[in-house]
Amino acid sequence: MVTYTPPGWPAGVHPPGSDDFESTAVGWLLDVVPPDYRLHGVLRRYPVALATMARHHSRACVEGARQGYRTARTELAGTLPPHAVDTVLAAYRKEGARLAAVARAVGLVERALRGEVFAPGMGDPKPAEPPFEPQPAIAQPAVTQPAVAQPAEPRQTEPRQAGPKITEPQPTTPDAGSPKAGTPRAKAGEPKPSGRPVAARVGAGPAGAPQAGAPGADVPRAEAPRAEAPRAARQRKAT
């Protein structure tokens, strides 16, 4: 009995439902994934797990090729000559188409391993992988604009509030001739704190007149000749 294989089925893999289908599918999937995947025995025992990992890996390779193709001119401009950049883009297109075909084939094998049966005319129930036809990005020359110095904004300062000026009282030093605070002045005729009487101040009198407090000031001027008269008489008798 011949089993139907859909378009894009990988060469070397037996049709689904045949005796050698799983063994040939595992061998082909191990060639799709990185070589280190062969070290994991679980992938050989469960081909569906291997097909799932191969699907993620193949789609990531296609996406990486598309991204590299789009940015090749921008990334290689100035490093490679223009004709070399065109050759790199041609390599991306060729390898990208091959990776997209591998990703579509991995999807078909995974669906067959999950038990799906293909028949002519039923069509593809799931969308196939899109073809590798991205548009490369065109390198644009970098245009640098001179930096324009921006004027510095005026610095805003908060106005100071004028408050009452507080001045501390300064100690006053008494003059040398003025009495100290708290010490009463001595009146005329009253003794000072030291016990000595204060001489009474008398205004200026006639010339030759004795001042108050001087010797002979208490004796009237009219009585002075009377005191001296008996003395003159005694002197005359003695002679």
Features:
239 residues, mainly alpha
Helix/strand order, N-terminal first: HHHHHH
Low-pLDDT ranges: 202-206, 208-220
Shape: elongated
Proportion of beta-strand residues: under 5%
Helix content: 25-40%
The number of distinct β-strands equals 0
**Structural class determined from secondary elements:** mainly alpha
Largest sheet: none
Q: Compute the number of helices.
A: 6
Rounded radius of gyration (Å)? 66 Å
- Residue-averaged pLDDT: 74
Head-to-tail CA distance between termini: 205 Å
Structure in a nutshell:
With 239 residues, this protein is mainly α. Helices cover 38% and strands 0% of the residues.
Q: Can you describe what's shown?
A:
It is a single chain. With 239 residues, this protein is mainly α. The chain has a domain of 93 residues. Helix content is 38%, strand content 0%. It contains 6 helices and no strands. Helix 1 packs parallel to helix 3, helix 1 packs antiparallel against helix 5 and helix 3 packs antiparallel against helix 5.
What is the strand and helix layout of this fold?
Elements (H helix, E strand, L loop, with lengths): L20 H12 L9 H4 L1 H24 L1 H5 L5 H32 L110 H15 L1
Helix pairs in contact: 1-3, 1-5, 3-5
